[in-house]
Specification:
Length: about 100
Amino acid sequence: MIRVVLPAPLRSLARIDGEVVLEVDGPVTQAAVLDALEARYPMLAGTTRDQRTKRRRPFIRLYACGRDLSDDAPDAPLPAAVATGAEPYLVVGAIAGG
């Protein structure tokens, strides 16, 4: 069981209240979690990563266990606390400005 916390605009788009609970087959990686999220909520496809290249969108940040995982390899294993559901995987909309 993987817990995923999405920013409000994505929750609204997918009509989700609160966090999402997903089952991931195989190794728990960022790519596997985002694949499972997009499979369950197809309307989110392309919102967190480019559909063709699978690269993270520029203003999306990915966190787990107090760490910014945004620049980690998509196939790197997520922390054990995320894989067991003890900690959530956070998808955060970054803000730019000045």
